[in-house]
């Protein structure tokens, strides 16, 4: 799949780079270096002061046009000098508290007084935008995407500009499961079909891959999806795995991850091919996440509109591909072939369950409230409801198959010394991280080094191997961050609805 995506990365970039927003061809120039506007006409009949004013006006218009074109184009690879990115990282500690509050007024004041390292070539640098997305500063990102504030001096952020690590803004937003940020980027033209490229990341990753594969790193899935195959018939163990996986994905804590995947899938082309790639590679957890989150789009098949009777839906197409692949494998021999057939059969079982019960499960998931962990629906109640939906659609999961064990949230597995700081790192974890960096591996999530090093620290973009402590720490930080922000949003909604009784109860619990 990586080789295919490498080829698609070039094709996608070339295709989208050669067409402007008005449909005109752009083959004749690089979007970063387009032809400049006509030079300022000579102003011989004007006074010196008037001539200076006209030249200054033309210069501003030229820079604004250049910045607008660059910000609205796909820039690949990044063109920002490393010195500019280093300057930004030297000053980012002053910007971080502003972005944490998402204060537009303070941000614009900072840009006006101390914006060096954040602007280059009439655009907001991709590294600066990357950091703003990491802190989920939605209001500030909206300001730089629009580029209308006078303090920005005509600069805009490009939603399709690759950063120095080889990925795009939408990849970063997908990494942090920020639905609001993803919606904002898409509204301003961000493409969900751009692929990672370069030495710092796995090449050929879509934002969809980042969302799906990082969802599979969630602690609930890691802790629970290790079925014991001893003394069991294979079909029983397979059903156990499939039903347990479905029950886990229906838990309230997983809603934000499924919502993110669903949103990105809505704007991703060739969704059936992406699902089929996961099935071919035997990635059942990833297959389940994509099926559960994007089943509405998948049912549409290759059409953007809801299928009529004339076209089979995407689930039927996937089933046909699995059957054809199994038939082709029958002519081969070896233990690996048997394992592949077994995984295909499990994927077929999963697709069958989703085709029958998927809409009911999705409707139930959508009803989960966005509230902190301690206020969510008890797991036992969720398990009973999901089992009821499955039984209504002809499946009979036993109590053994729906046993998910005692799931611990991240807060219960991290000591106070292991709590990540703002950058997603842990002080106690840094020596181990340095050792791993010396070995060429990436065990440090979150931001890049304070000096703007060349290493990319996005798990899911850097490595598809089993999660490390760094992955768990980042997921822990995401869990805490989500909990804090969801609690804040819930409190605001309750105040607007004037329900003081609930607020009083909440404050008592928090105390």
How would you sum up this structure, described in words?
Strands 1-2-3 form a three-stranded mixed sheet. The protein has three domains: 2-198, Alpha Horseshoe (Serine Threonine Protein Phosphatase 5, Tetratricopeptide repeat); 211-407, no CATH class; 416-510, no CATH class. It starts with a helix and ends with a helix. The chain is built from 20 helices and three strands. It has 511 residues and is mainly alpha-helical. It has helices spanning 2-17, 48-71, 82-101, 104-114, 126-134, 138-146, 169-175, 179-187, 207-215, 219-224, 234-249, 255-266, 271-280, 284-299, 314-329, 335-366, 379-392, 430-438, 469-497, 500-510, and strands at 119-120, 123-124, 156-157. Helices cover 56% and strands 1% of the residues.
Topology at a glance:
Blueprint: H1 2-17, H2 48-71, H3 82-101, H4 104-114, E1 119-120, E2 123-124, H5 126-134, H6 138-146, E3 156-157, H7 169-175, H8 179-187, H9 207-215, H10 219-224, H11 234-249, H12 255-266, H13 271-280, H14 284-299, H15 314-329, H16 335-366, H17 379-392, H18 430-438, H19 469-497, H20 500-510
Parallel strand pairs: 2-3
Antiparallel strand pairs: 1-2
Helix pairs in contact: 6-8, 7-8, 7-9, 9-12, 12-14, 13-14, 13-15, 14-16, 15-16, 16-17
GO biological process, one term: protein ubiquitination
Keywords: ANK repeat, Repeat
InterPro entries: Ankyrin-SOCS_box_domain, Ankyrin_rpt, Ankyrin_rpt-contain_sf
